[in-house]
Amino acid sequence: MVLPTETARFIIPYGATMLATLINTRLLSRAMVCASVLSTIFIGLPKQTVLADSKTRVVNITMEDQFRTRCETGAFLGDVVVLVFAERRGAEAAHELGKKIHVLFHPTAISVSDEEWAHQPVVSPPGWPVDIRPPNVHAIPVACLSEVPRAMHPVVRARIRKESPEISVWLDYEDIMDHHFGLERGVPSVAILDTRGMVHSVHVGPFSDEAINSLVTTIDEIRQASRPQIITAATPGALRR
Predict the structure, then answer these.
(1) H-helix segments, the chain
(2) pLDDT tens for residues 154-194?
(3) Is 238 within a domain?
């Protein structure tokens, strides 16, 4: 199976190489370099990966992408949202995971151009009525960049636009994902929102093939739960029986 171009797909590997490049630019003062290094060293302990009140909590995650477009999960009500996120040390693994999830639910994406990657039809859950639109699955890449100084945000956006000119990458400069879901260092995480915009579950990597299959099963169970009830009217003859 040959996947689309690596650098133009999903979460861009914005790791140590990119930050080193940024630090070498003249836009950063020595003070900014120190602040960035210290923020990398003094990282807090991991939080709980599943929130206690997640089953009843509606969230609307909002942030900008590399095109400065305002993005929000509330725009996808009726569909399942899969937020794939990581800080720089987990970026590569998150990059691969996001692609796999997208292709599993949109298999035709594997053979189309970058421009069409995000616009492929979703496969229906097993047994889904053919005349009813199935909930889509939006696998959204989120780059957690809170350690990048504000002065460097334009540089980061430009770098990611260059690497991913078609696929939207949400940019989290404010620790939004960590605040809502917790952020494990060095591995990707996945937050799943159901069709009502409620937090269903949060999953922390690393993700084996078995774990990915479990994610797919969970997502399909959420989609099945949103299936409309089909009521068949009884005929007079049937009532007499």
Answers:
(1) 16-23, 30-41, 91-105, 153-163, 176-181, 209-225, 236-240
(2) 999 999 899 888 888 999 999 999 999 999 988 899 999 99
(3) no
